[in-house]
Design a protein that fits this description.
It is a single chain. With about 325 residues, the protein is mainly alpha-helical. Helices cover about 60% and strands about 0% of the residues. The protein has helices spanning about 5-15, 40-50, 50-55, 75-90, 95-105, 115-125, 130-145, 155-160, 170-195, 205-210, 215-230, 240-260, 260-285, 290-300, 305-315, 315-330. It starts with a helix and ends in an 8-residue tail after the last helix. The relative contact order is 0.12.
Amino acid sequence: MLIRDELEQRERAILSPYAAKACETKGRIRPEEECDIRTCYMRDRDRIVHSKSFRRLKDKTQVFLSPQGDHYRTRMMHTMEVSQTARTVAVCLHLNTDLVEAIALGHDLGHTPFGHAGERALNDVCPLGFRHNEQSLRLVERLEKEGRGLNLTAEVRDGILNHGTNDAPSTLEGQVVRLCDKIAYIHHDMDDGVRAGLVKEEDVPAPLRRLLGETTRARLNTFIHDIVITSRDRDCVCMSDEIGSALFELRAFMFRHLYTNEAARREEIKADRMLKQMYHYYVEHPEAMTDEFYKMITERGESRERVVCDYISGMTDQYSKARYNEIFVPHSWSRY
């Protein structure tokens, strides 16, 4: 018997009846031979980790643009914290941890440089619109591996696409990631905000602190326990009404006191202008992009506007600033 078969049998024996089993996957866009030692969701997780898009996350903004310090989260660290939190919840609910990890590790692959400021900038200027979850799906389906994509399973692609607040993943594993994404960024963004001196723990409204905990660590613990207790033996993953409402109150507090902080906003305005200028430049001069992206327009018939978004959203913070300087900032020169 193949090791993969043993793993699939184990899933059937120990996972919740509501869990997604690898042997029941809806499959891939392109059929391919199965691995003899890994389930399909294990392979998807590995493909994401080894992708170029995943590696670039380490140099992309989470909240603070170009922070001076080694301990502020990057998009990579956010992704890892979502994955770890989601895995803990999945284990407690007897769900498929391989599927959870694959979705969590891939959910933000399409994020722009400079975080949500970059996403808003591209969405403002591109007539086709831009959403990072849709870009994440586009990356794994069409852009990675020189246009072949990663050929992930339907369940992983669904979870990546539907991890937003108003989305509805088709698997419980996708629902776990959707919730853990929110509690992860609320937890670590508050932690980073305190470190940056932009907000203090005592600024959190007293009723929320009494209900959820006095520290970021305590609140994370409260959220995870509530998801597990509320979702046990159910065909959905959710929070209790009380804690769920408190989560959104805390999120609203973060928007008022951290995400719209004047110091952070000044840097976001710079990033917004920079990416919009770059977008217009590359739409007018698509040949200035790398050959890989230029050929998507000339040989594959892709929309110029969409490909420019592909190109810019794939940049790291530092690379986008370097490209901007090359295009728009005068350089010294000499005559020969």
